[in-house]
Every structure is written in C-alpha cells, then in structure tokens.
Design brief:
The protein has 400 residues and is mostly helical. The chain is built from 17 helices and no strands. Residues 356-362 have low confidence and may be disordered.
C-alpha cells in the first residue's frame, strides 16, 4: 500500500509540474535562463578546476600521502581516516557538492567504509568562501564584513556537525576504534610512492579521464540547478509559496523573527542563492536577524544541493538519510553560531574599523574580485571546456 501511494504521489507531482510548465511558459523560460546563467557563469568555472585537480591527486597517490599525515588528527576528532582531511579541505575551498563527490569517489576506491563515508559527507559538503563573500556579503548585502560572520558560523557549524556525526554508526564500525598512528612523513611518502606505482594509466590518460569525469558531474549539477530553479518559480506562480510561508510564519514567531522572512526561508529551502537574495531584501528585521536566516539557509543547503548529493551518492552504497539529518542539525547550529559570534566578529570589528568594518588581515577584497572575475569570464571558460569535453568524447569514440 505504501509503495502504491508513493507511485501515485510521484506521478501526480510530475504531472502537476508538467501542466504548470505548459500553462506558464514564459515564467518557466525565465527560471530556466536564471538557473542556466548561474551554472554557466559561476558554478561550472568555479568547480571544474577543483574537480580535475582532486581526480589527479587521487590518481597520483597524493591523497594517500595526506591521509597518512592527517590520520592522527582525523581519527580522534571525527572517527575517520586521514583522507577525510583532504575531502574536508577541498569541500570548503570548492563548495557544493564537492564533499559528496569526493566522499563517493573515495568510497569507490575503498579508502572508506560505508559508515565512514556517511560521516564524512555529512560535514564536508559546504558553501565556498567565494560565494559567501562575493555573492552574499558583497553582492546581496553590500557589506564585505558580513562575510566574516557568515563564513565563521557556516564552517564552525560544519565542524560541530562533524563532531556530532562521529557517533553515527559507532556500533557497526569497529575500525573507528583503532588507535591512530603517530605522525610520520616517511610512511606518508611510502604510501604516495606505492600508489603511484599501482596507477597504470599514463599521465595523459589520467588527465583526460579527470576532465571527462568532472565535466560529466557538472553537467548533472547543471541539470539539477535548472530543474529546481523552474520548480521554485512554478511554486511561486501557483501561490504554493505563499500558502507554505504561512506555516513558516508560526515557526518564525516562535523564534522571535519577523514574518517577512517566511518567503525567503521557503525559497531558500529549495535554492540557497534565491533565498539569500530575498533575505537581504526583507522589509523588516535587523541585520543580525538577516544574517541568522542566511546562515540557516546555507546550513540547510537547499533541496537543489541535496538532490545533487543524493544523485552522486546513488552510485555507491552511501545512504542519504544521515546527510539529510546532518543538514537539519546544521540549520539549527549555524544561526546559533551567528548569534554567539555576532558581537566579537562583527560589532567589535565595526568599532575598531568604522570606515569599512573589515579587518586588514582578512582577504575579503580578493574574494570579491574573484567573484566578479568569475562572472565576467566564467561563460567563456565554460564554453572552452565543453568544446574540450566533446573533443575528448569523439577522440575516445574513434578508438573503439
């Protein structure tokens, strides 16, 4: 009976969405273009270099080297092998959904057990600093200093989620109780050399496979971005957003937040960029309250990112449920961190630097310039890479 209800629900949802697309073609087109612009100009050019380099680092054995070095740190903190540190760093640097892709890749390579992979993906799939500082802080709020508090609360809450998820699957994963080895550069170098000798592909083949695999993943990501951009727009056109926001208003009242945040929160549940932008445009609410709502949206990640993660994990035995629970945990922890860090990281900074509110040791201007550069040259970079991808596919097909 439950299976039949699920089939009926999925069929009805797909039919309703298709009907809304037919009834509202212009709104659908506008939403598709918005999603395509985001993928074409920002997501693809910002993620592709990280994906390619990550594939090369795995293939050349550098991940083995990093894993041995970080084992004494990652094992006691997160009950994970040292290679988790590589995924954690790459996930923070490149953003969604890099943590999930690399966790799945390492699981396929047998670096991680299933439980360890579920722990790892739960806190390594985060937003990148370029988006937080460039798009949200500067682009939406026109306040570079706000990026400090948003980034600090986002990554701190991620860290706390990792500490909490160390208890996930504890009884099933006896390997996590192993005592971590001592720090040894010699053992790390030996692991790197051994892995390199095991890799039989020539360097050219390794690079070509890395490019092909990375672009295939990003094409899937682009499809999800466009789909959820259209879905969000159709919900707005059908007045579902207004109806659902009435429920969110009661939750916001319990949290003592203005009701004007209801629509931004609902939109942010589907897509973090739109939710963050609408939050910055909210008519009421203090800047602290806006920052807390944006932190909640970034922590939850949105159904668009979660669908991307689910699609990536589907190729492995890693379960999606622990990741989803971790997102709920972070959506609670991130606003709390923003509230606690607001005075020391924002108000005190404004007092010390009344002109700009930006500490001299933080690289917000560089991140903002990087965001502008990606918006300016991202589409050209994407076009060149897609031509390269087609060339590699045709070259591979000609050899068969």
């Amino acid at each position: 009976m439950r299976s039949k209800l699920k089939t009926m629900l999925l069929a009805f949802t797909a039919t309703a969405l298709t009907a809304s697309l037919i009834i509202n073609p212009q709104a659908s087109l506008d939403a598709s273009i918005r999603g395509l612009d985001m993928w074409w100009g920002v997501v693809f050019p910002s993620l592709l270099p990280f994906y390619i380099m990550a594939e090369l680092l795995i293939g050349l054995g550098v991940v083995h080297f990093i894993g041995v070095l970080l084992e004494p740190l990652m094992r006691p903190l997160f009950r994970l092998p040292g290679v988790g540190g590589f995924v954690w760093a790459m996930g923070m640097a490149s953003g969604f959904p890099s943590g999930a892709k690399l966790s799945a890749r390492l699981r396929q390579e047998k670096y991680l057990s299933r439980v360890e992979a579920e722990r790892l993906v739960s806190f390594t799939n985060s937003s990148n600093p370029l988006f937080i500082f460039g798009a949200v802080a500067v682009g939406f709020f026109h306040d570079p200093a706000l990026g400090v508090i948003l980034a600090a609360s986002h990554y701190l809450s991620n860290f706390l989620v990792g500490l909490l998820m160390r208890f996930h699957g504890r009884k099933k994963d006896g390997s996590a109780d192993k005592r971590p080895p001592s720090f040894s550069v010699k053992q790390a170098w030996h692991a790197l050399h051994t892995k390199r000798l095991e890799e039989k592909r020539p360097l050219g083949k390794l690079i070509g496979d890395a490019i092909t695999s990375s672009i295939q993943t990003l094409l899937m990501v682009g499809g999800f971005i466009i789909l959820f951009s259209v879905l969000n727009k159709m919900l707005t056109v059908a007045h579902v957003t207004e109806a659902a926001s009435s429920v969110i208003r009661h939750v916001l009242q319990m949290a003592r937040l203005p009701e004007s945040f209801s629509i931004p929160v609902f939109s942010g549940m589907f897509e973090i960029t739109l939710g963050s932008q609408l939050t910055s445009q909210a008519a009421s609410g203090s800047l602290l309250q806006q920052a807390m709502v944006v932190s909640l949206i970034l922590g939850f990640s949105g159904f668009s990112v979660q669908a991307q993660v689910a699609s990536i994990l589907a190729d492995t035995d890693i379960r999606f449920r622990p990741y989803f629970i971790a997102r709920i945990m972070q959506s609670i922890l991130a606003p709390a961190c923003t509230f606690l860090l607001w005075k020391p990281l924002y108000e005190n900074t404004q007092t010390l630097h009344p002109g700009s509110g930006v500490p001299v040791f933080l690289p917000q201007p560089a991140l903002s310039d990087g965001w502008q550069a990606i918006n300016a040259y991202g589409p050209l970079f994407t076009l060149i890479c897609l031509y390269l991808y087609l060339f590699l596919l045709l070259h591979k097909a000609s050899k068969r």
